[in-house]
Amino acid sequence: MTTPERSAADSAAAMKPDDPSPEDLWSGHSRLLACRELAIAVVLAFCAVVTVLTTLGILLVLSVQTVEFFMESKVGILEFLLGTELRPDATPPKFGILPLAWGTFAIAFGSSCIALPIGLLSAIYLSEYAPRRLRSVLKPALELLAGIPTIVYGYLALLLVTPVLKAIFEPLGIRVPQFNALSACIVVGVMIIPLVSSLSEDVLSAVPRGLREAAYALGATKFEVSTRVVLPAGLSGVVASFILAISRAVGETMAVVLAAGMLPQITLNPLESLETMTTYIVQVISGEASYGTAKYLSLFAVGLSLFVITLGLNIISGLVLRRYREVYQ
Amino acid sequence: MFLMPGKLAMAGLALAGLTLAGCRSHKTDTAAGPKRSKAAATVVVDGSSTVYRISKAAQEAFEAVNPDITVVVDNHGTGGGFSRYLQDEVDIVDASRTAKPDEESKAKAQGIEWTRFLVGYDGITLVVNSKNTFVKSLTVEQLKKLWQPDSSVKTWKDLDASWPDRKIIFYSPDNDSGTFEFFTEAIVGKAKSQRDGVQQSSDDNTLVSGVANDEDGMGYFGYAYYAANKERLRAVAVQNGAEAKPLLPSPETIADKSYKPLSRPLFIYVKNSAARRPEIKQFLNFYLENIQTLAVKGGYDPPAADELKENKATLGKLYPGAETAATASAAGSQPSPASK
């Protein structure tokens, strides 16, 4: 077993932080206290490591099974990524995930169209315009949106949004299918508003007061201060919040499964049914797909693709934050 | 007190190790399956979402009488049920078709013996939205034209020149469903091959809600799901052959087998080794004893008298020695021949 060595190494790493040297504090007083302190450090370090190990473990499982998928199905990587036909049960089966990727990005794009402007504008209002009292009520209220279970958003889409869309479009002679992308976009958009507004608001209100006052001193209006001084100063954080919200929309499952339909197709019409990667995964998992078949393994290939997309987005958002952050003292 | 965190850490490490080993453990997991289910008095039923309604009715009635035995009923589709069954995770499969040769041979290879019971009759029902007034009946040829792969039919007009020029929205059970297999076999002529552009779901209620809310929706599923939603859906009569009369599915036309070609028997497959367990025996006896009420409660036609007799004979063969006329409660009190 390598466990003791590893945890010892971890604890050594964890002990490093430049506190006043522990020997001074504990010298000669109590071995028990010292032991306790060490144990705590070990536990804390371990918790940190578990997260990383879990991620690595998931990545490993996904990768191994994905490789197995490509060997089992004899589908080329390009054919998988760029194929426009998804028919896992046909003979020979077709595993083109482009329709799924299309569905996923269409939902992400549509919901961003709703969430990004609304989120950003409410963040600006909260940080620049809202009286302090109002803000202390409004911000938690907005964040409450994030606490609504996604399945609830899903059936709201079916029972509320879709009927409203029908009532709007059908008199104009436009058919609205029961399962359509637009209604999914709307609920996912609402769902991710708090991500944008809350994170952006934090960033904007962290912009130093001095900058604002300087701008006011030069005769700028409140709107000019907000859009030309505060927003550019906090831009990196705002962009990062955008990307996080998009990555959340990409990975969203339940609402989309319920509302967007199960029809893998590439279409520009938002009033059509779509199928996202997450919906495909749900569908395969709740069906037959016995262990080891290409269809079963395709789960992992699709899962890995999804993972790569969201991981990529998160990394980009991290880079944006670090790269373009304006540091004020 | 101070040992606690250490223990926690060990447990945590083990957990992480499990995560890493996750990809391997799948196969070994299934080997442990039967032991797990034997420990608790649990009956696991899975399979067709059509037969699900009968088994669910059986479960509810049975648990009211035998609260100690847990019956789990799931609906992963007939194919899904069989594949879980072959992995030893399920005791009874709900099947809306007979076992396929490859399922038979896989079972044989694993030494799993099963017994089949007929539990009712269903007529796969073609439905349209209740606002759709023009589609009254369809011939089998029209249906084939509609549902076959590479079908050129996109709008109602493509099917009949007098119908409106609006896009049809198709709904069907997913590829693991026995209903899907039976329908494609009966209509298209080749099992599991169907046109593109169909919204497929393993949940019949999703299909119901799709057709019920889309004016140009069309779909098919087991009769019971239509019967339960009659005010939101309209069934389409099926005309089998040029001179035949178009017939709607109904308890009568399904019972006299005139609703063709979409009438079909429904089955349950019981694993023989599992059937020796007392709780399964009790459940099975109860199920078959009350099948007439249960089938009707599920929304289907019960088996005919001679099929009931046949079920009884099969049950007798499965439990040699036990009185074939044993009632559910008597069967429960009898010592089960647990050791083979």
Overview of the structural elements:
The complex is a heterodimer of chains A (329) and B (340). Chain A is mostly helical. Chain A has 2 domains: 3-63, no CATH class; 94-323, Orthogonal Bundle (MetI-like fold), CATH 1.10.3720.10. Chain A has 14 helices and 2 strands; from the N terminus they run ααααββαααααααααα. Chain A has helices spanning 3-15, 22-26, 31-73, 77-82, 98-129, 132-147, 150-169, 181-205, 209-217, 222-233, 235-251, 254-259, 277-285, 294-323, and strands spanning 86-87, 94-95. A two-stranded antiparallel sheet of chain A has the order 1-2. Chain B folds into 2 domains: 34-121 and 264-333, Periplasmic binding protein-like II (D-Maltodextrin-Binding Protein, domain 2); 125-261, D-Maltodextrin-Binding Protein, domain 2 (3-Layer(aba) Sandwich), CATH 3.40.190.10. Chain B is 47% helix and 18% strand. Chain B has helices at 3-31, 33-39, 49-65, 77-86, 101-109, 140-147, 156-159, 178-188, 204-213, 223-227, 251-255, 272-275, 278-289, 291-298, 305-318, 328-333, and strands at 42-47, 70-73, 92-95, 114-123, 125-129, 137-139, 169-173, 198-201, 217-221, 233-235, 237-239, 263-271. Mean pLDDT of chain B is 82; it is low at 1-39 and 323-340. Chain A binds chain B through residues 3, 7, 32, 35-36, 39-40, 42-43, 46-47, 49-50, 53-54, 56-58, 60-61, 64-65, 88-90, 158, 162, 166, 175, 177-179, 261-263, 265, 273, 283, 286-291, and chain B through 2, 5-6, 8-10, 12-13, 15-16, 19-20, 22-23, 26-27, 30, 76-77, 79-80, 83, 86-87, 166-167, 169, 174-176, 192-193, 197-202, 209-210, 213-217.
* Strand segment tally of chain A: 2
In percent, how helical is the residue content of chain A? Answer: over 70%
Averaged pLDDT of chain A? 87
CATH topology assignment of the largest domain in chain B: D-Maltodextrin-Binding Protein, domain 2
User: What is the number of helices of chain A?
Assistant: 14
CATH level 1 class label of the largest domain in chain B: Alpha Beta
Biggest interface, which chains?
A-B, 44 and 45 residues
State the major sheet of chain B: 5 strands, mixed
Element-by-element helix/strand order of chain A: HHHHEEHHHHHHHHHH
What is the straight-line distance between the termini of chain A?
49 Å
Secondary-structure element pattern of chain B, one letter each: HHEHEHEHEEEHHEHEHEHEEHEHHHHH
